[in-house]
Amino acid sequence: MLFKQKTVSFLRRIIPGKLRYHPIIDWIHLKVHPILNSYLKREEQVFKQAWKYYSDEPPTLVYDIGANEGFTTQYFLNMKAKRVIAIEPDPEAFKILRFRFAKSKKVDLIQVALGDKTGPFPFYQISPHSGYNTFVYDWYHKHVLIDSKILEANMVPITDIFQQHGLPDLIKIDVEGMEWEIIKSIDQDIPFLCFEANLPLFASNTQFILQHLKALLPHHLLLCSSKNVLSPPISVATAMQIVKNPLPGCVDFFFIKPKKIS
Questions:
Q1: Distance, CA of 197 to CA of 252 (rounded, Å)
Q2: Is the whole model's pTM more than 0.85, yes or no?
Q3: Residue 136 in contact with residue 179, Cβ under 8 Å?
């Protein structure tokens, strides 16, 4: 295993960041990183299991908000999604997305942030193409590194994306503390909406989201996933208890319209 880890480190040093997602390098990377490979497979399975609550057909239009390096975008392609809008403000992560999906006619890439404001705002880059990069200073302060940077990224409301690309049947939101700023603008029926909650730091915002979505989508099922294990449907009250008494870490919540039984 030590040899394998050294091999990965060597590849990371000699190959430019975006090129590590060349299919051959990606295959080697996952082969020598069995723990990462297992994690990604379990995470993809959670999305597939959750989607089955809504439909046996592939998603028509997916919004991958906070696409980062494109792992979840690839999950949705593996689910045979007809079209994926991958949204990512980090410039280094966006380079990887462009390289990784350059030949895919199903993926549209948008380099922008979503929120409750419009215009350029400070974007805290903890490290290039890190999944921890954020617009939230408290999150940045908690994870800041010596070489972290404060950049600027453009922000628009999600309603602008709806107008440009249509209403999706699946939205995934993973934006390190900005979930509430995006979701509070949603006022239409979305069949499948999942969001990440980093707890306990964003507990209060997560409670706001749960209340908002319960009112907006009262007949949807609510599920959660922790450590890539999907729960059966739970009540909002149970979800609130998870948020109020969390183990430190992240929990994904899913609001899913139940499948029609013919």
A1: 6
A2: yes
A3: no
